[in-house]
Amino acid sequence: MEPHQDNHPPLTRGMTLLFACACGIVIGNIYYAQPLLAAIAHSFGRAPTELGYLVTLTQLGYAASLLLIVPLGDAVNRHTLIVRLLMLNVVALVAVTFSTNFTMFVVANVAVGFVTCSTQLLVPFAASLADARSRGRAVGTVMSGLLLGILLARVAAGAIADGLGWRAVYGIAAAMVFVLTVVLAVKLPKDRRDARLDYAALMKSLVALVRAQPLIALRSTYGALVFACFSLLWTGLTFLLSQPPYSYSEGQIGLFGVVGAVGALAATSAGRLVDRGHGNAATGLFAAAVLASFALIAAGAHSLAALIAGILLLDVGVQGMHISNQSVIYALAGNARSRVTTIYLTSYFIGGALGSFAASVAYGIDGWRGVCVAGAALAGVLIVSWLASQRAGVRQVTQ
């Protein structure tokens, strides 16, 4: 059994749930805008499709911080780093709330994306506290919180915006993160480490990790493709639902996050499958679910039932794939889990940013059908990548 890292006490159930709640609260900050695109666009005199690029920019800000900030989690005091990032998150959310023009709004949102990387310091922190036999389950639980945060953020944003306007969404988010900062400053396990690697050495070691573990690069590719599918759907969905035949309000659009939240329940199960040595087969199953979902989603242009079923199937596939990926790579990482997180999630959110961008372009070219064709194409590439890895003999390594 691998020892606990840095002489921390073992991860308790209560601490696992705190990590999960923290991840859910913080990650929601970069997804509140999705059901609000039409309302935000109207307030700044912009076209709704133009706001699709806002999601892309925010995710790119997040991806940049994953690359530049998260590697520090292997070298510095994680407690201090996480708390300081949360404090900056509060400042950025306040700036969004009181933005007076579109440029200020965009810049503040990119800043929100950049400092939200604290979530991806919490996930490997939890993995380092768990023992080898339960690590997949612990990662799955924490990631369930994060994924529920992504999906339920849309529900909360839509409901609040219907009654109080979109600015209230970000004001309330700032208050929530402030309270969370205080709680984590007290409850988060103290990290006694001082820097052991300089920053340049940390960044160079990312390349060495990929060369030493080709499976990390493979799983990063899976992650980029599957999150591109996810972001493409949820960005394009706002365009579909805000227009005839649906013509839904922000609150009604946000309620679709409840449907997607069911998919997050697959996360813990995926982690357990990896713990038992079945992660490779689970990967193929989840990839097939993503591909199949777009047939239902395409029919959703005129059928609410088909749309809901497709969203549910897509989210099960996406979240299950994501947890399978992370459970596998954390088993390889040892004391380099923050750097492995950087490699994987930088790819993941670049994929998400490209998916959001593709949704805006595809919808502008061919409406909902264009979005679904693009999604099916990405899912097809994912399936081909998985099949090719089986033939090449790139297999999962488990604990």
From TrEMBL:
InterPro entries, per database record: MFS, MFS_dom, MFS_trans_sf
Ranges annotated as spanning the membrane: 12-31, 51-69, 81-98, 104-126, 138-161, 167-185, 222-241, 253-274, 286-314, 343-362, 368-388
PROSITE patterns from the UniProt entry: MFS
Domain of life: Bacteria
A Pfam family recorded for this sequence: MFS_1
Keyword annotations: Membrane, Transmembrane, Transmembrane helix
All copies of domain Major facilitator superfamily (MFS) profile, residue ranges: 1-392
Position of the signal peptide: none
GO terms assigned for molecular function: transmembrane transporter activity
PANTHER family according to UniProt: MAJOR FACILITATOR SUPERFAMILY (MFS) PROFILE DOMAIN-CONTAINING PROTEIN (PTHR42910:SF1), TRANSPORTER SCO4007-RELATED (PTHR42910)
Protein name: Transporter
Organism: Burkholderia cepacia (Pseudomonas cepacia)
